[in-house]
Amino acid sequence: MRKELKAQIIEDLTARIKENPNFYVADIEGLNAEATAKLRRNCFKQGIKLLVVKNTLFAKALEKSGIQDCEQFDGVLKGSSAIMFSTTPNGPAKLIKSFSSAEGKGKPEFKAAYVQECPYIGSENLDALCNIKSREELIADIVALLQSPVKNVISALQSQGGGKIAGIVKTLSEK
Fold first, then answer.
1. What is the total count of domains within the chain?
2. What domain range is 149 assigned to?
3. Do 13 and 82 belong together in one domain?
4. Do the beta carbons of residue 92 and residue 22 sit within 8 Å?
5. What DSSP element (H or E) covers 119?
6. Where are the alpha helices (H) located in 23-159, listed in sequence order?
7. Tens digits of per-residue pLDDT, 34-85?
């Protein structure tokens, strides 16, 4: 590969890393063409960009993008690596877990991730990454918590006890 092409690939990867705050490194070696095509289709449906890149080029892109603790990825950037870029923090983790169990081959195999400015190295972190809530899920939880006290007051006023309270208030206002 020519030096100019390598520099262009590094620039492209650096731009993708800056655009997408979350990325996952997985091993897809050993998947046949049908399974790989199925994985790519699932990634496309969920808005995940899947790229297979050379480990050395990706390591240089990590350094160039200014990610802290990028040297932690040196140990996992061995063998075949596929990079999954996503805007949702738990999307690729759920895809990796469901696809590897559905295909029965254990592939794609989770190697590492950089999610919400924290590196996660090793397959033992996959379950924790699946449980990370997305921005939309957190907003929905906050709205539900804020609505809960109001719903309790309204239901108490509309229940039988609320009718008694309304009767007492009406009697007191008449006097």
1. 2
2. 136-174
3. yes
4. yes
5. strand 118-121
6. 33-45, 55-65, 91-103, 126-130, 135-158
7. 888 888 998 899 888 998 888 888 888 888 887 777 777 888 888 888 899 9
| Paired sense of beta strands 109-115 and 82-86, if any | unpaired
* Residue 69 belongs to domain with CATH number: 3.30.70.1730
pTM equals 0.72
**167: pLDDT confidence band, cut at 50, 70 and 90?**
low
Same domain flag for 43 and 104? yes
Farthest-apart Cα atoms in the chain, separation: 94
Residues 6+ apart with CB under 8 A from 100: 106, 107, 108, 109
Residues 60 and 34 in one domain: yes
Residue 91 corresponds to which tokens in the numbers above?
Answer: 């999307």
Q: How far apart are CA 54 and CA 77, in angstroms?
A: 9
What per-residue confidence (pLDDT) applies to 172? Answer: 67
In angstroms, the CA 175 to CA 167 distance is 13
Distance CA(172)–CA(165), nearest Å, equals 11
114, 164: one domain: no
Cis amide linkage into residue 108, ω under 30° from 0: yes
Cα gap 46→146, rounded to integer Å: 30
